[in-house]
Structure formats: C-alpha cells, structure tokens
Amino acid sequence: MTRLLCLVLLLASCLPAIAETRYSGEQTLWQDTVWSGDILIDGILTVAPGVRLEIRPGTTVRFTFFDSNGDGIGEHEIFIQGRLLALGTAEQPILFTSAETAPRPGAWGAINMMASEDDNLLRHCVVEYAYRGFHAHFGKGRIEDSLFRRNLRAFQFQDSTVRVSRCRVLDNFNGLQFRDATVVLEQCRITGSQWAIRGIYSDLTLTGCLIENNRINAVSLRESTLVAEANRIIGNRRGIFLQRGKGTLRGNRIVGNAEHGTFFEDSEVILRDNRITANGRAGIRWLDSQGVIAGNDLSGNGEYALMNDGSGDLQVGSNWWGSVDEKRIDQLIRDRRDRPETGLVRYAVPLSGKPSAGPTATPLLPE
C-alpha cells in the first residue's frame, strides 16, 4: 500500500498542476472576466474588443504545448484585442509559464496584443518559456516591476507604444526587438541575450538601465531616434550601434565591451559627458556621421579612443583621452594619418583629467 501511494504521488508530481479554470481549443471572452488561482490555456484564447481581462495577484497561467508546423515553437497563447490588466504584487506575482514538466524557451506563444489600443498593464509578473513573452502589434502597453526570463524573445513590438519600467530581462535568446514603435525603457536590466535591444524605424528612450553581458549588441538601431541617459552598458560584444539615425547620449557608462563601445554610421549624434572606457577595440567608431563629441572620458580603450572611418573631417570638442600629450592623443585616434581614404580628426584642448560624473538614475531593482 505504501509503495502504491508513493507511485501515485510520483506520477502526480510529473503532471501539470490541476487548473481551477481551463480553456481548450479556440475560445473567446465576450464579457469582462477576472482570473485567480490556476488557469490552463490549452488552445488560443481571444479577449474580444471592448472586453477587459483582469488577473489577480498570485495567479498562475499555464499554456500547453502545441506545434502544428513542426518548427518546435508552441502556438497556444492569449490574444488580446480588448484590455489586459495583470496586476500582481511583489509578494504575490502573476506567473505566465509552460504547462510542460520540462519546458524550454518557445514552449508557448505569447501574451499577444493585437489592435489593442487600451492601456494594457502588466505589473509584478513573471513571464517565462514563451516564443514572445509580450508581443504588441498596433497596441499600447505598460510593463512594470516584472521578470522576463528564458523566452525566445522577451518583447516584440510593431506599430505600438510601450513603456517598460523596472523590469529584469534575463537569459532570453533575444531581449527586445521592435519596428515602427515608440519605446521607453527605464531602470531595467537586460542580460544574457544574443541581442539585447534591436529596433528599426522607431523612437527609443533609454534611462537608468543596465545592459550587460549580451553576446552581440547591447543596443542596435537603424533609421531610429535614440535618447540615452544615465545607463550602464557593460561587457557586451558591442555597446551602442546607430545607423542612419539620430542620437543623444549623456551621462552613460559604456565600459568593457569586447569590440566598439559606440558605433555611429551616417547618423546625427550628440555625445556628451559619457564614460566610454576599457572597450576592446575602440571607444567610438565614427562613419560618415556628424554631431558633437565633448566632455567624455575616452581613456583606456584597447586600440583607439576614436576611429574616424568616414571620408569627412571630424571636429571634436574637449574630452579626456587619458593624457594631455598631443603625440599620445594622436596615437589614440585613427584617421587620415593612418588611412588616406578617411577624414582627419581635429580636437579641442583636451580636458586635464577625468570629467565629473554625469547624471545618475535611481538604482536598479535588486536581482
């Protein structure tokens, strides 16, 4: 009898938790709904236009795995056309996860906002093992104080307006990717991704974030606008890449990235009061761009403080190069004197020492 009881308990532990509410197949919520307890999504659940889904603290939402085309990606998800309010607390977060006993990233689809113009809000949520943790297409959303981990893509936006505040984005294949979007990231930590942030045709405001130890770029934007202040961009392959865009960077620490700390191509850039040091190849790579470079700490980078790879000359303001000796500063700059096809770099009287720290932001949430 004792052995039989142990066997039953063992088998029960291998099964998904028994759900208090279950949705199977393709279903639609046609009226305002409140969830609590354990919810199982065994299909695609749509929240109709004009309908509100509210999820209470401590709720667990699980998704079964279904792969119709054999690509290894789960397809069961929540499809929001109305409004989602997932309001957990620090003590009782809301969990969105896989129903599998041994899940992997991509085991379910997404929290999917489609043509949802209401102000969708996730607060104190944990989102894990999804294909796209939070996906917005023609939508609006705020995500606060939440954890996104082990998803294929933590966030994906298109034609949307999204604000992400005080969130941790940890060990996803990619962190955030977006196009034609307006995105605000504040006091977030993004680590352990291939690409931390990728965007095109978008406006990104980045304030007080820590973006560290991502395997490719920390921030990669094309034909976009970037405003970055008081961020720490540390230990990635590359720091910030901006192509055919506009950027204002002030008071950031861009330190210890394996290749370039910053790379600007065919862009308009204001680069003031940043610490851009200890990057493997160069602090700044400048290609056919224009703008202001002044008040920065450019000391201690691996090969060059500044590389001018464009055909035009570059006038640089007063910065700290790690030295005030002109011969030494010349060695830290790659320009026409090294490569005849590129422009010259002319610099103002260098700063006599490291500039004072730029603006600081509220400390990040503890891990």
Helix content: under 10%
Q: Quick one: overall form?
A: elongated
Tell me the domain tally.
2
How many H/I helices?
2
Which stretches are poorly predicted, pLDDT < 50 over at least 5 residues?
A: 4-17
Structural class per helix/strand content? Answer: mainly beta
For the record, the CATH architecture of the largest domain stands as 3 Solenoid
CATH class identity of the largest domain: Mainly Beta
List the quaternary state of the chains: single chain
Percent of residues in β-strands: over 45%
Number of strands: 38
How would a crystallographer describe the biggest sheet? Answer: 24 strands, parallel
Rg, Cα atoms, Å: 24 Å
Estimate the mean pLDDT confidence: 92
> What is the CATH T-level topology of the largest domain?
Pectate Lyase C-like
